[in-house]
Design a protein that fits this description.
With 79 residues, the protein is mainly beta. It contains one helix and five strands. The longest helix has 7 residues, at 41-47. The protein is 9% helix and 42% strand. The chain starts with 13 loop residues before the first strand and ends with a strand. The mean pLDDT is 89. It has one domain (14-77).
Amino acid sequence: MPNVIIDPDSRSLTERFALIRSPKRSRTRFPAGCVTLVEDEAAARAGANPEQRLHPALVYGPSPSSEGQQVYYLMRWLT
């Protein structure tokens, strides 16, 4: 997993459960368009669908990237 500096005082950056649409699970950051935030870990696990390349994860973000996009950093896969 990436070395992500977590800002405990941030109000917008936080760990969240999500479903990530990705053909590979080797990446460590994902554009916001590939990330669907969900309520909790159970919802992330329930929404997983490997055939549609939806993978449950814990992410941190959103954070602006150097390319001007909003990105989420992978903290860990839930499967």
